[in-house]
Amino acid sequence: xxxxxxxxxxxxxxxxxxxxxxxxxxxxxxxxxxxxxxxxxxxxxxxxxxxxxxxxxxxxxxxxxxxxxxxxxxxxxxxxxxxxxxxxxxxxxxxxxxxxxxxxxxxxxxxxxxxxxxxxxxxxxxxxxxxxxxxxxxxxxxxxxxxxxxxxxxxxxxxxxxxxxxxxxxxxxxxxxxxxxxxxxxxxxxxxxxxxxxxxxxxxxxxxxxxxxxxxxxxxxxxxxxxxxxxxxxxxxxxxxxxxxxxxxxxxxxxxxxxxxxxxxxxxxxxxxxxxxxxxxxxxxxxxxxxxxxxxxxxxxxxxxxxxxxxxxxxxxxxxxxxxxxxxxxxxxxxxxxxxxxxxxxxxxxxxxxxxxxxxxxxxxx
Length: 366
Known about the structure:
The protein is mainly α.
């Protein structure tokens, strides 16, 4: 009989070596679709490395690509730690972009010192409002937060599509579904390094994502709320005996998760687009689920997990352009890499055992 059992102990060498083994195995398996597509395997991997680590601008692009993944990964991590399966970070991101966009478009003459904090606050409120729908329905009617948060994602996508095609569309957009451009005060500017200048698309939102990850780690490890989140996630009965209120923890955690995801929407639009459009996210809210589990539900680990996912995406895109590979091949490569990393994390916690079924003794009378 094959069984999957939790590991009692795990050496530091196994913890460090298994992710490396997973990555090497992923590269080996990914060579098959690359070969079928007619792409030189070694050259493909070389172009992926060059595309991500080949220059300071490539590194800055990787950090920029990882920023929305860190925001949404934190949203998923905090919820998952409390055993709240918030699958709707994508919709919360969209509503954060909508709320902050309303502020930017309604008050374009405000100075940056006033407009930018107002946009940040609005994006957090937008994400919280959208996250409160599954939270309150779960608290009041015990509905499944997975289904509700997931379905609300598509509602949010349709709502922003209606806004940019209807009431918020720029009359000078020549029929394209775009709003007016944000004023300069509503844009997140590039980081200027002393004696170097700007590094590609690197912007101040990257710093914000790193600070939020540190703050999330502090909340989980040093505050009463963080203790309640971990207890209600690991041992809900013990939390109830300790006097914790599950409903309040649910609402608080979903509010924090929604606010983090909403902030991702504001940063993505203000730093990279400068105006609202139908697609303000490229699946960041769904990829956040992978990021959260790669990080082992650790806020600091989310930073590294976000960088790994960004590395896979950016390296695949660069190799596709350099070698003229089909888009689907790079998609398969990224899928294999992420699958093997997740499989490695699973074997970090569990191991497979084989036990022969017990054979009953046959009596002599028979």
